[in-house]
Amino acid sequence: MSAGLDDQRLTRKERWLMIENMLEARPVVLISELASQFSVSVETVRRDIDAMAEAGLLERTYGGAAALKTAREPALNQRATLLAEERERIARVAAGMVRDGQVLMLDACATCLPLAQRLVVERRKLKVVTNSFALASAMAYNTTFQVIMAGGFYNSTEGANYGSETTEFLRRFTADHCFSSCGAVTAEGPTEVDSDVAGVKRVMLERAHHVTLLADHDKFRRPRLERVASLSTLDTLITDQEPPPDIVRALADAGVRLRIAGA
User: Fold this and answer.
1) Which of 15, 43, 69, 216 is most buried, by CB atoms within 10 Å?
2) Tell me, what's the pLDDT at 243?
């Protein structure tokens, strides 16, 4: 906290300006940190956030606020071309965790596509539940697989189905293993930009006996808008580089196994 903030209380207008400036520098701010920085109560900051949202200056999120200009995730086919080598290494480790005859849940993420392509060649008699058309198509090449496609509203950016129909459908199944990714990973858990995407991922994690998060090193840069789940929901995290120290500590505290996919 700066000396200026220690010496005098900020006016409402000054707080609003500082919040706007903070959201210029990063996509999300937390009410708790604003209250501490401004030396005011959480309720005061919450009222500020509510009023600023009503004025169209920001977007309310769970526990904080986000800049209106926060970019959405690139389309799935665009993400698949980024960090392709790193995703392949992660997929190789993930494929080694799968056994013939298992029931899997795979979400619509760029890293699950190389995983699916490996499983088609290396495994038999899998039952795969997914909301992704690309994953369903890739899995269909192995005639011993049973592919179960979740319905819902089609999202052309993700190439997948989302919404209440999707989550209701997924709750009918129990999987041996769920492989999922996210927009970003924080010490509090995986996060996403889109609430519908987060909702489907959340249900998939809940419906699996073992949950593995696939996250390349770029996922550890900054949070997205909505937390999908706590770290304790995960069993394993596979990445291509050592995560930041705070996340390594949080993973250990939550009992999550960290696996680094080498070259």
Assistant:
1) 216
2) 95
